[in-house]
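The instructor's notes for this session suggest beginning with a concrete chain rather than abstract definitions. Hand out the sequence below and ask the class to guess, before any prediction is shown, which regions might be ordered.
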Amino acid sequence: MLGYTQDEFTFELSVNFFHPEDYEIITRLIQAALIFATENNITKEVAFLVTYRLRHKDGHYIRVLRQSTTFENDTEGKIISNLSMLTDISFLSTSNKVDWRFDAPGLDKDKFKKYVTQQYADFFSTREIEVIKLLKQGLKSLEISKELSISKNTVDTHRRKILRKSHCKNTVDLLNFCTQYGLL
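After discussion, reveal the predicted structure:
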């Protein structure tokens, strides 16, 4: 699917072929899912689905769906290994967003969302969170500058950094991102 031979496909390669814009989000999501599954004795009946972009051998990126489930548990029920299947879904979606879903029998989705939120606790600075909260209230840059006693240029700089960091194109995308990852 990615154009690599079995000999070329190494662990070092596998951790470096995520799209640079997707890497941090994917690693945080995977870490949250693993910590949650370990601390909550998740069984084999679990599904973790995430879509993101991977680099093909020729350099272009394809959109993939990664479907993961527990493969093996120890005698106490803790996860020893997982099984993941990657599917090229480029023909279905050209979106650049990382999408995910975690599902297990009896899953407390609010509890899982707290694990994701913990992984994002340091994603934005305190000031960036203040700006985002004011954006959520519908305030414009000039109004935010007055509210926070900073210049409009500083607010605009924060907004650019926030959008770049979250890989969002606009405020609506940003607010959806923040809601999905429990940042608001």
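Then share the key points. The first helix runs from residue 11 to 14. The two ends are 38 Å apart (CA to CA).
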